[in-house]
């Protein structure tokens, strides 16, 4: 798993936990479950009955008369919006590259779509010894695409041999497109199989 996926999953997990906790807090107070189930919430716990609010009026208006309050609120919201936009742009940077230039230097009017090259790489990989299934996709910018391989191996395959064969596959793709570099990342899995009985 790359760092981009780890960051996305971490952010989604944190956001999900915050929303889940807030939802349970509102649901418990709104349905008056503390009284119905005979539970005693901690002192100062918000939303303990259907008539409570998350923040009392006194707390909501405590600092509104202070000079620093509104600039602080606006700055905090601006930071949140900037972080959200940064995250959105980070997602767009990893989109499919689309039409790829061919040749070095690129030949005018000649291009190759990322889907066609992905299919060719997947078909080439699927023919390798020990490979049960292969999927390939290209990500990144059209001028600097990255290939990602998702390869399922046969139970008796040797991952080292498949890895060396994948290097040859990427090398052939570079030669056929005229590119000097094609960074690649491979994820190798073993196909599920029934255990063999030893007699």
TrEMBL record:
Keywords: Membrane, Transmembrane, Transmembrane helix. The chain crosses the membrane at residues 12-31, 68-89. This is Alkaline shock response membrane anchor protein AmaP. The lineage of its organism: Bacteria, Bacillati, Actinomycetota, Actinomycetes, Kitasatosporales.
């Amino acid at each position: 798993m790359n760092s981009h996926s780890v960051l996305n999953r971490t952010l989604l997990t944190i956001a999900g936990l915050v929303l889940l906790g807030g939802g349970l807090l509102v649901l418990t107070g709104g349905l008056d479950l503390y009284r119905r189930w005979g539970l005693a919430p901690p002192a100062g716990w918000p939303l303990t009955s259907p008539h409570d609010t998350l923040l009392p009026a006194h707390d909501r208006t405590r600092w509104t008369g202070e000079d620093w309050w509104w600039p602080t609120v606006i700055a905090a919201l601006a930071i949140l919006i900037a972080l959200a936009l940064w995250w959105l742009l980070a997602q767009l940077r990893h989109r499919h590259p689309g039409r790829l230039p061919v040749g070095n230097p690129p030949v005018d009017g000649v291009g190759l779509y990322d889907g066609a090259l992905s299919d060719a790489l997947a078909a080439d990989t699927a023919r390798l010894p020990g490979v049960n299934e292969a999927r390939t996709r290209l990500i990144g910018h059209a001028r600097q695409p990255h290939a990602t391989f998702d390869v399922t191996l046969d139970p008796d395959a040797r991952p080292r041999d498949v890895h060396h064969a994948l290097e040859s596959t990427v090398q052939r793709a570079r030669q056929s497109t005229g590119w000097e570099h094609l960074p690649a990342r491979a994820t190798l899995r073993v196909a599920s199989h029934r255990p063999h009985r030893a007699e």
